């Protein structure tokens, strides 16, 4: 049934497509770049179509190549995961989750204790960064949580939480607040296209345009640091209801003008299609959906 499948050619193609380089694919598979090129040509001849566009700058997938890559990568990944069930130890119970440093510090990591109590044999590795991860090319990442303005049709998408941005401060700051001595914590929020978050937009919505002329700005480049500064009483912060949920519940922060907020993106859990049906991924996604729903309830 499978005797005629060009497995070596498919494996060479998948590596070259994922790494966008014949040389890098050769290093990964411990062969020569010429061997990768030969296997790709064998596959192209068999299929009767070009899979790569070749130029002096390197190689780039054609439309047909992109389609075959997604299918091949998913199939090889499924085979690899299936083989893990036969290995000793807990390899099949380990997953790598990628998310932003802010969400990891303020929301995910504080809840992991409950996760491990429910899944004692499960090992969840947290990989943080603000750059988007290409799950179709980077098989080292099993699942990603990102704030997005729209879903990616090439991935499995699980909606988690809708963000809204409002102003928060330590209770003692709000109690002694004087418009003449405003201190605002400014952060360049890294939000997807279609969402705009800034003090100027919030002030316009609240009718407080004069704030920007008289306020002293405290600038930060990381949302976790900005929230820590607000908790320490260093000013008012324009922040996500998701990221401040725990601080509000503990009484460390309180909302100022909760009737005024800016719409933000949606947090989504995303993975390669088909992975959501695997037992450990299914369990992780169900847990994430449960704690996300509880967070939104608390943040209202």
UniProtKB/TrEMBL annotation:
Pfam families: HTH_1 (PF00126), LysR_substrate (PF03466)
InterPro entries: LysR-type_TF_proteobact-type (IPR058163), LysR_HTH_N (IPR000847), LysR_subst-bd (IPR005119), WH-like_DNA-bd_sf (IPR036388), WH_DNA-bd_sf (IPR036390)
SUPFAM superfamilies, A to Z: Periplasmic binding protein-like II, Winged helix' DNA-binding domain
Transcription in keyword set: yes
Annotated keywords: DNA-binding, Transcription, Transcription regulation
All residue ranges annotated as the HTH lysR-type domain in the record: 5-62
Membrane-spanning ranges: none
Highest taxon, organism lineage: Bacteria
Family note: Belongs to the LysR transcriptional regulatory family.
Name of the molecule in the record: LysR substrate-binding domain-containing protein
Species whose genome carries this gene: Pseudomonas soli
């Amino acid at each position: 049934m499978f005797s005629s499948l060009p497995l070596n050619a498919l494996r060479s193609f998948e590596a070259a497509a994922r790494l966008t380089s014949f040389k890098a694919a050769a290093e990964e598979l411990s062969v020569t770049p010429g061997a990768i090129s030969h296997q790709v040509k064998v596959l192209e001849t068999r299929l009767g179509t070009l899979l790569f566009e070749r130029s002096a700058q390197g190689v780039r997938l054609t439309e047909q190549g992109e389609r075959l890559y997604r299918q091949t990568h998913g199939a090889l990944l499924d085979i690899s995961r299936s083989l893990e069930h036969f290995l000793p130890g807990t390899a099949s119970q380990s997953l790598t989750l990628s998310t932003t440093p802010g969400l990891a510090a303020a929301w995910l990591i504080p809840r992991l204790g409950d996760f491990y109590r429910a899944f004692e044999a499960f090992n969840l590795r947290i990989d943080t960064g603000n750059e988007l991860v290409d799950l179709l090319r980077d098989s080292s990442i099993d699942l990603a949580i990102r704030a997005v303005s729209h879903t990616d049709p090439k991935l499995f998408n699980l909606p988690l939480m809708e963000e809204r941005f409002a102003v928060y401060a330590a209770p003692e700051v709000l109690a002694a607040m004087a418009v003449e001595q405003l201190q605002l914590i400014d952060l360049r929020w890294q939000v997807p296209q279609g969402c705009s978050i800034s003090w100027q937009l919030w002030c316009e919505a609240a009718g407080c345009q004069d704030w920007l002329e008289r306020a002293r700005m405290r600038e930060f480049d990381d949302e976790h640091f900005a929230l820590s500064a607000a908790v320490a009483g260093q000013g008012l912060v324009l922040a996500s209801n998701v990221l401040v949920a725990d601080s509000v519940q503990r009484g460390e922060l309180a909302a100022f003008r909760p009737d005024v907020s800016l719409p933000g993106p949606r947090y989504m859990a995303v993975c390669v299609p088909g992975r959501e049906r695997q037992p450990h991924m299914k369990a992780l996604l169900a847990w994430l959906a449960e704690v996300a729903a509880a967070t939104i309830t608390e943040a209202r």
